[in-house]
């Protein structure tokens, strides 16, 4: 069993503040990761498009995981990685304002109540400032469609990840909803977190982010921070 996880229990302040970016701004995604010394561009061999970035540690772990998966006939490809505040804002506001349909609906007209509309978007998309993708530790693999992982090739890929990803330090944070995980986003078989670093960033988010920090985008006032925090904190118990 290869516990790549244990190698990278590093200090949050050393890994972040030492790179001339405030730690709060880091967890909020309000920094330029393309110029941050701890981030690297993902080579095209590991991704479905150019221009994506991850923290070095997370990418190194993914490379090892991908190599092991290939030996078992499983191909793993990163389809989404680091997204800063502005990137997440574009996703959120496109859904909020009806420019991007959600389940075939223009939510601006279909759900005029702000709280209800926010909760509909929050099934799968984070508010800017609250996404784990801000941290450079989280990746989406192979598909963003849950049905893809239910049968055939996609099912085999998910089963391999479920059985082996932890060996390389990755955890499925948004597992199936139930008594173990009653709150948070819907299940995302594709979303895997490099957990030794992500844990530190999550703790910092929990302790330091205020309601005024989650602002500057359409719909930011739709829900109180206490409600939004249920999504931030609603992860699988083994990933906490």
Question: How would you describe the overall organization of this protein?
Answer:
This protein has one domain (4-86, 130-239): Muramoyl-pentapeptide Carboxypeptidase, domain 2 (2-Layer Sandwich), CATH 3.30.1380.10. It is built from nine helices and six strands. Residues 1-20 have low confidence and may be disordered. The strands form two sheets. The chain has a four-stranded antiparallel beta sheet with strand order 3-4-6-5. A two-stranded antiparallel sheet has the order 1-2. With 240 residues, the protein is α+β, with helices and mostly antiparallel strands. The relative contact order is 0.17. The two termini are 21 Å apart. Helix content is 36%, strand content 8%.
Name the features.
alpha+beta; four-stranded antiparallel beta sheet; 240 residues; 6 strands; 8% strand; single chain; disordered N terminus; Muramoyl-pentapeptide Carboxypeptidase, domain 2; globular
């Amino acid at each position: 069993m290869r516990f790549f996880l244990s190698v990278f229990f590093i200090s949050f302040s050393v890994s972040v503040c030492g790179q001339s970016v405030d730690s709060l701004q880091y967890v909020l995604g309000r920094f330029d990761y393309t110029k941050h010394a701890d981030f690297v561009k993902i080579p095209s061999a590991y991704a479905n498009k150019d221009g994506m970035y991850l923290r070095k540690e997370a990418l190194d772990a993914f490379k090892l995981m991908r190599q092991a998966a290939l030996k078992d006939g499983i191909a793993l490809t990163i389809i989404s990685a680091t997204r800063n505040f502005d990137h997440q804002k574009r996703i959120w506001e496109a859904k909020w304002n009806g420019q991007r349909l959600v389940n075939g609906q223009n939510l601006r007209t279909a759900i005029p109540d702000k709280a209800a509309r926010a909760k509909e978007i929050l099934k799968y998309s984070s508010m800017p400032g609250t996404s784990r993708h801000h941290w450079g530790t989280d990746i989406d693999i192979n598909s963003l469609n849950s049905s893809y992982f239910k049968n055939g090739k996609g099912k085999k890929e998910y089963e391999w990840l479920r059985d082996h990803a932890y060996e390389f330090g990755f955890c499925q944070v948004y597992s199936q909803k139930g008594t173990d995980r009653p709150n948070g986003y819907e299940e995302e078989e594709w979303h895997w977190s490099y957990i030794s670093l992500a844990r530190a960033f999550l703790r910092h988010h929990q302790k330091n982010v205020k309601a005024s920090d989650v602002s500057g985008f359409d719909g930011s006032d739709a829900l109180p921070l206490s409600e939004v925090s249920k999504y931030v904190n609603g992860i699988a118990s083994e990933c906490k």
